[in-house]
Design a protein that fits this description.
By secondary structure, this protein is mostly helical. The protein has 2 helices and no strands.
Length: 51
């Protein structure tokens, strides 16, 4: 049982490291669009109302 747990941990560690390496060394071509918030939403903001 202990040997199976060690090998499972080693296997998962290997997968995570490879996936992190692939993700860190890749680029993305996704562009995000975030429209401006309406001025009416400012009345709900705690940060802007404290000033």
């Amino acid at each position: 049982m202990i040997n199976i747990n060690k090998s499972a941990k080693k296997f998962m560690k290997n997968i995570v490291e490879k996936q992190a390496n692939l993700s860190a060394n890749s680029t993305t071509c996704v562009a995000l669009y975030q429209p401006k918030a309406p001025a009416a939403l400012k009345k709900f903001s705690k940060v802007d109302n404290d000033k």
